[in-house]
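Prompt: Have a read of the protein record below and flag anything odd:
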Amino acid sequence: MSDLEVINNFIDGEFCPCDEYLDSFDPSTGLVWAKVANSSAKDVERAVEAGERAFPMWSSTPVEKRSKIMLKIADLIEARLDEFAELESHDQGKPVWLAKRIDIPRLVHNFRYFATYALHDLNVSSVQQDFNATNYTVKCPVGVAGLISPWNLPLYLLSFKIAPAIACGNTVVAKPSEMTSVSTRLMCQVFKEAGLPNGVVNIVFGYGWTAGQALVVHPRVQLISFTGGTATAAVIRKSAAHLNKKFSLELGGKNAAIIFDDCNFEKCVETTIRSSFINQGEVCLCTSRIFVQRGIYDKFIQAFVAKARSLTVGDPKDANTFCGALISKEHQAKVTKYIEEARASGAVIECGHGVEPLDLPERCKDGYFVRPTVITGLPDSAPAMTEEIFGPVTCVVPFDEEQEVITRANAVRYGLSATVWTENVSRVQRISPKIDAGTVWVNCWLVRDLNMPFGGMKDSGTGREGGKYSTEFFTEEKTICIQH
């Protein structure tokens, strides 16, 4: 292991060796580049104990002091932005430029936002004159929070959990994805440098079915915040149903774009290319079903396919690369299977996998790459139209009427996000509330305000995240009544 990065657990402010280690692959080359701790229930127990020891001190630390430490964390990460971005790209397969533009700036923003939000959060009070009583609320941290984050936006999404948890006075045991753990070590180093007290944030690495499961069922972990697949969330719910934990579950999506014939066509095509294929399509909010009004359907297909063909797939280090590598060989096989099954059913693969060859540099010849793929000619019931693929694959179908497209867009088990493209304000107001999605973007995509609730409907999750919504989850609100 001496020639490889070795990623140890971070418990009670120290990096702790583990009994077993997992191979971590560079998605762009297919080669092992790191060894990651494969934590056991014993390791999780140590981390929980460290969080419990730190909780009395951290929960009683004035919010102003907690905020200053978090702001220092943000400053230190920002000062090392390039280093963080290069690690994130190496670990996940995304282009370096994308990590520099989105992932690491959002990591910084998450710590700054929740550090300052905590300073301005208000409690409520009421006066009952008939009883000569005053009521007020206080928000109390809960204890040790269990946080489980995915591999697609590793630090971005991990920090979206850690930041509000510790801002509210909780301590944390977090488990990142075993496939993207390397950059987390650098963040732990920043925690120490910023003066975050030992035990406030503890990180255990390893498989979900071992380390993650041990965290989920731990009787002294009161909160579980999980971002990942819907099937995994079902296991989490069943495993811990008897423990009366609080759950926040941000899950899968099969997000629709609804494009009317009065849209701003150029902006729509450009944005929908980005919403379909950014980060290799490995974003829960990516567009994977595109409904286009029949009057502009042919025009849209021509323009959209031409742009998709022009996207560069290749080395994540190359500044011209738009799509890097998928996370793993297994995931690459899953994505291409959906495309092949669609082809076999009679659908048209307009561009992408199996149509244009991949032209990869020698360094990347064994990497996990798939070209941006556009599929037409599928019924709404086809697997590629109903199941989350989580890759650079999108399906385009025509529609005629407003009510028809609402019904069709809602006819999946997911409800995370949607986009609507129209210049008709009345139509926007009419249809947006009828779409089963936690977020509806109109004439844009991925414009996020952390003051607003984020989460999904149906099989896309439980609960909401964001300023007051994360605060509500990571605290227990208590009423105190004083009669005088």
User: Anything to note?
Assistant: The chain has 15 helices and 23 strands. The CA atoms of residues 82 and 100 lie 7 Å apart. The mean pLDDT is 97. The first helix runs from residue 41 to 59.
